[in-house]
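[recover] target loaded
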């Protein structure tokens, strides 16, 4: 049963019934083609993606249309525009995936499509297209949870056994969970306000980086990372009681540091006589502000991660030595964050495993592989594809964040930035 919820991500959704039942069935693998192929379709936000993968994890073909540059110019995603662009390009993207794979739709064993979570106006494009596609071709349909697809992508590339810890960091999400199996996740913590990608984007806009000549065409996160690389002072924001640091849980909160940073920038602009100047001018310590923000955000992520390590150890959710931490999502492409996570994992006997950067952002490959994971198990096929509904907000799995909080685990922070400096000094 999937509880249908009204989208809170945008004001364009029509209220729908409170509960919808999705019936799923098993399919015998012997009844399908000898070489299973899954076509994956992704339209949850600002990427129109499609791909064909086989049961060995080989990507046979891919099509991808990115709306990033359009939304960067607009200062953020406009849902009706994103929907229009998805509708304009989805058929071409799917046909490109099939063409580069050298197959037709009749060669496909099943179609897998993102139906949750995401922007309602965007999700509906992929779902409507997929319903028509499976109806005409007579194919099985596998609904996919977008965040689970991010979590499973790495298993397409290398051997990662269940259970493992997963950190999903993106524009709309920040989730710490234990992956116990396909479709079986325990959520240790979630974001309670702004997600990391959202905080990066808003901070970049507040610093006017979309006007900076070195940041042309870059997303907010990419712009912050580029500017931060030139920073020499990362200590501008060190308030200990900012939300997300004092609570002994694995939930994330980035609204506090974003607010402190905005106030700091305003004071700087007033002191330098450039507040509200048009066209916008840049504060003199731009690089240090970007570096300090990036470090503070990374500090919170590492703190929550260390607590998750300890909670999993105490509760024996993960017991095998050299366990895996899988990190994925758009923000996982940030090299500074990856380096910090690598340092923390090494201290706690975890192995950091990340998909390559092009698979961390939204794409059809991850959806196709998530569909293949289900296909190989004979699970998750929609009984009636035409009755499937999209879900703008839907949990990844069972939420045990309150149990984590009740454990009241105190952890010691790791000064990863000092380890990073040591590496630089030695190189």
């Amino acid at each position: 049963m999937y509880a249908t919820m009204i989208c809170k991500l945008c004001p364009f959704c029509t209220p729908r019934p409170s509960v919808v039942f999705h019936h799923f069935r098993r399919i015998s693998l012997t009844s399908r083609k000898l070489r299973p192929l899954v076509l994956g379709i992704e339209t949850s936000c600002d990427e129109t993606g499609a791909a064909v993968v086989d049961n060995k994890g080989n990507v046979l073909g891919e099509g991808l249309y990115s709306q990033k540059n359009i939304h960067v110019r607009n200062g953020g995603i406009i849902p009706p525009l994103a929907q229009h662009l998805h509708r304009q390009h989805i058929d071409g993207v799917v046909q490109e995936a099939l063409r580069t794979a050298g197959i037709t739709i009749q060669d496909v064993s099943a179609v897998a499509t993102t139906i949750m979570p995401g922007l309602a106006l965007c999700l509906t494009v992929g779902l409507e297209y997929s319903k028509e596609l499976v109806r005409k071709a007579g194919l099985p349909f596998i609904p996919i949870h977008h965040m689970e697809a991010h979590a499973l992508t790495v298993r397409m590339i290398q051997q990662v056994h269940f259970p493992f810890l997963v950190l999903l960091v993106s524009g709309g999400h920040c989730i710490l969970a234990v992956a116990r199996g396909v479709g079986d996740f325990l959520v240790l913590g979630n974001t309670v306000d702004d997600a990391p990608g959202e905080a990066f984007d808003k901070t970049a806009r507040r610093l006017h980086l979309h006007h900076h000549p070195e940041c042309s065409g870059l997303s907010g996160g990419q712009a912050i990372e580029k500017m931060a690389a030139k920073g020499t002072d990362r200590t501008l924001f060190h308030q200990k009681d900012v939300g997300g640091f004092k609570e002994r849980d694995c939930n994330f909160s980035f609204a506090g540091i974003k607010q402190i940073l905005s106030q700091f920038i305003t004071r700087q602009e007033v002191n330098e006589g450039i507040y509200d100047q048009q066209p916008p001018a840049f504060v003199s310590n731009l690089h240090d502000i970007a570096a300090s923000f990036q470090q503070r955000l990374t500090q919170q992520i590492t703190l929550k991660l260390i607590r998750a390590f300890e909670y999993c150890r105490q509760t024996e959710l993960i017991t095998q030595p050299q366990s895996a931490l899988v990190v994925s999502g758009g923000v996982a492409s940030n090299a500074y964050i990856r380096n910090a996570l690598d340092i923390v994992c090494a201290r706690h006997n975890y192995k950091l495993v990340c998909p390559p950067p092009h698979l961390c952002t939204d794409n059809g490959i991850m959806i196709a592989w998530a569909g293949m994971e289900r296909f190989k198990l004979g699970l998750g096929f929609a009984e009636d594809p035409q009755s499937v509904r999209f879900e703008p907000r839907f949990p990844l799995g069972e939420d045990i964040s309150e149990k984590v909080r009740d454990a009241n685990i105190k952890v010691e922070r790791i000064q990863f930035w000092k380890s990073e400096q040591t590496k630089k000094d030695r190189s």
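[recover] notes: The CA atoms of residues 234 and 292 lie 4 Å apart.
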